[in-house]
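Sequence in, structure out.
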Amino acid sequence: MREILRTILRPLREMDGLLLACTHYPAIRHLIQPLVPDCNILDPSAMTAEEVVAINGSLRRKGPSDVFLTTGDAVQSREAGKLAFGIEIERFLRIELSQPG
């Protein structure tokens, strides 16, 4: 993982900012930050978590089953879940994240 990140991030070392634009990137932020030490890392995970909590409250009223959320295409995400994990995901919803403020 570290070697792959070094290769990917090498051209970005001089960037002012880097957006962690996928849900799994914050989990490896501790590996990313040292490779771009002067770069401001923008992490939208807190805003995403707040939005999911708000959405979850409204979804609970509709039933207890698991719900998978995506900001992408729900049909493609459902198909990707089936291919990757071999499971049928009954409730996969597309959500829009609102801007803070």
